[in-house]
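call fold(seq) -> tokens
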Amino acid sequence: MFILTLNCWSYSLRYHLFDWKKRVLLARGQVDRVAVGGSSISLEVPGRPNYTAQIECPDHRSALSLILETLTGEEQGVLHETDRIDVMSHRVAHGGEAFTRSVRIDGEVLAAIKDVKRLAPLHNEPNIAGIEAAMELLPSIPHMAVFDTAFHQTLPGFAYIYPLPYEWYEKHQVRRYGFHGASHLYMSKRAAVMLGKPASECNLVTIHVDRGVSLCAIRKGLSVDTSMGLTPLEGVIMGTRSGDVDPGILPYVMQRGGFSPREMTGILNQESGIRGITGRFSERRDMLAGVVDGDERCRLALEMETYRLKKYIGAYMSALGGVDAIAFTSGAGDLEWISRERVLRNMACFGIELDVQRNRSAAFSGGEMAITQKDSPVQVFVIPAIFAEDAAAILNGTYTDPAHYPYTFAR
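ret:
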């Protein structure tokens, strides 16, 4: 069984191709600058030189078509034809309260995804564009939706209700939903394996690090709190998103600067965070490289980021009453160790004893790794998160839900 996963943003598409029978990643890559000019595609195949090409993609359909052509190309491809793809798995940012698990996409499901687009217009809209393009280009195979929000449907009411008029929740579905659910689920299962305990016996803090950044408090295998909220804007500092800010700032600046709600939404989502602080970088790897080069604004951005991450970790450890482990994904390349080292520095009072050398070498290991000392009461792991199993399980008719399905990676 060959599974193609697709993760669509407004101006880029990320893809992974798996041979699920052999549990092998065949290829992965990304199309950048979709619809804005200067589009390019990258392809990484284990054991081969990386492939890149500059080809214009005016929309998501043309970008997906380019991905399929690249995967089946005579020189760089890994498949003879697209008919070898058995199923496509689509990351969908927001499922609202309607979806508590991954599902097969049909007309009704697609309509429901469109209905909650108002809760995450910057994310669900490109997700929908990718789904519609894929169903048009590959109409004969099943398409599955994996929802960022599904894993967090176990949050208790006191964690997901905001201290706002309650009718806002009843009438407008204003509540904490959380995101990056598949990543947090994967890290929680793998961390439990690395601890040698069932996931149902583990308390964890998981930290997803990529373009967006979010934390999750996991009690006995279930998500009980998470840093992102109604939208992916809440929480810690991210590449272009502000994270937590005083809400009083927004009307104040809107009145003084004459910004519309739409303009302010764009600023908070696309011109804030690391980009806003540095004035030029939106990727964390560029910010970290700037720190190494002595850029003061990059240093400030790093200090702000790591300070907030440290605060969230402490808050979640308190809420959980202690944890067995903390798990990071790694989304900023070889210099990621700089951020982790600063986050975990001086946290021995929480039972975290960092092994500095192991943390630095984790960037080059490419696999799962403990970065704390062997006798550290709380272990810290770096776990690359790759997720495709829901699509295979749905296709095989064995899928249940995130909490109870016996994932192969949980063994």
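The CA atoms of residues 72 and 79 lie 5 Å apart.
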